[in-house]
């Protein structure tokens, strides 16, 4: 098998950890000797141990003289664990094939330099684009100070998410809804606005048994703390973490009651939209989140689009048309000229029963 083939195997391992390794990126590592895989590993839930450490443990003594395929440049500094470059060197790895460079300012090429200094052969940028997509959330926290934001929408062909009377369950079918739970499973958190909470009383959990090991954080944008204490979100806060982003000056009694129920409350500056969404997303990054899936209604979608905070779209289209009296996927957010529209480029498309999922990336 070629370098590309073994790197694809490492990418597959890294994909399994998406949504469970924050604040670390999900990395895959495959160790190969004489054309045979002798060790494999992916970043563990919570970010440790690292992929390289797990793969080396599996390989044992057979790692000496082998090649390690790693989706991300191995770390070169001591944090809560020792440097992976030193672990690779100590195990006798002869060659390291890397997908992409680590954007962390303490690494950013230093790991590759140290490997070469130790006498290890290094090959860079194998399947780089695919490997960079794996760390897009981690990179966003470093470069933009906020998580990667994916807006998930489920609408009719003409972009409506509910009837004029608010009926929305269900526009898409069972297969699309199961696929949406898979999307939740690949993110650190799922976010909704308080309007969705009040209208639907959602759980916002990943209900595919055995899909993920780490708990999924649920986040609600609720400027005035209107989330009901008896909502399913609050009642489940002990098992599935619930964070609420609220404006400063919110009711102290509501703060105390929600905190007593196990809710994490994050105070933000007020804005005309209720809370400062940019500050809110920066706060989520400071609390360790790297990948957030947004499942709110048209109001939260418009707010995030207005603030240019949407990096990806996951759009489920049902083969139906509702008409102009339906609720739009995004409310008005100030677009008066075509040049003001956020633009996206398609990444992938797949069938979900009778529905279609199209994924987009910000242009």
Task: Walk me through the structure.
This protein has helices at 3-16, 51-59, 84-90, 110-117, 128-134, 136-143, 174-185, 194-200, 232-235, 252-260, 277-286, 298-306, and strands at residues 28-33, 36-42, 67-72, 95-100, 121-123, 148-155, 160-162, 189-193, 217-221, 242-247, 264-268, 270-271, 274-275, 291-294, 312-317, 327-328, 344-352, 355-362. It is α/β, with parallel strands linked by helices and 363 residues long. The protein contains 12 helices and 18 strands. α3 links the parallel β3 (67-72) and β4 (95-100).
Entry summary:
This protein has 363 residues and is of the alpha/beta class. 29% of the residues lie in helices and 26% in strands.
What keywords describe this structure?
single chain; 363 residues; alpha/beta; 9-stranded mixed sheet; 5-stranded mixed sheet; 12 helices; 18 strands; globular
């Amino acid at each position: 098998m070629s370098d590309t083939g073994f790197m694809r195997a490492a990418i597959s391992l890294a994909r399994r950890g998406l949504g469970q390794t924050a604040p670390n990126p999900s990395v895959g590592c495959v160790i190969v000797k004489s054309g045979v895989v002798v060790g494999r590993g992916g970043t563990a839930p919570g970010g440790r141990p690292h992929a390289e450490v797990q793969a080396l443990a599996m390989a044992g003594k057979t790692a000496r003289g082998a090649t390690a395929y790693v989706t991300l440049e191995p770390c070169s500094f001591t944090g809560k664990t020792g440097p992976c470059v030193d672990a690779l060197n100590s195990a006798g790895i002869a060659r390291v094939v890397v997908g992409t460079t680590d954007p962390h300012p303490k690494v950013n090429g230093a790991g590759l330099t140290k490997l070469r200094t130790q006498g290890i052969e290094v090959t860079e940028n194998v399947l780089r684009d695919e490997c960079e997509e794996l760390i897009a959330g981690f990179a966003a926290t470093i470069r933009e100070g906020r998580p990667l934001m994916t807006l998930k929408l489920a609408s009719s062909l003409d972009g409506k998410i509910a009837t004029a009377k608010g009926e929305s369950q269900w526009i898409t079918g069972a297969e699309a809804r199961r696929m949406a739970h898979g999307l939740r499973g690949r993110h650190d958190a799922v976010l909704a606005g308080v309007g969705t909470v009040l209208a639907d009383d959602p759980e916002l959990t990943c209900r595919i048994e055995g899909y993920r090991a780490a708990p999924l954080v649920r986040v609600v944008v609720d400027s005035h703390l209107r989330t009901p204490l008896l909502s399913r979100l609050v009642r489940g806060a002990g098992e599935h973490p619930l964070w609420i982003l609220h404006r400063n000056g919110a009711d102290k009694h509501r703060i105390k009651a929600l905190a007593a129920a196990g809710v994490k409350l994050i105070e933000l500056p007020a804005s005309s939209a209720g809370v400062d969404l940019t500050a809110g997303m920066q706060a989520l990054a400071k609390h360790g989140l790297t990948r957030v899936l947004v499942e709110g209604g048209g109001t939260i979608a418009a707010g995030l689009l207005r603030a240019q905070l949407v990096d990806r779209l996951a759009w489920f289209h049902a083969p139906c048309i509702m008409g102009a009296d339906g609720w739009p996927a995004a409310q008005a957010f100030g677009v008066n000229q075509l040049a003001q529209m956020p633009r996206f480029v398609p990444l992938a498309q797949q069938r979900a029963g009778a529905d279609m999922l199209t994924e987009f990336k910000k242009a």
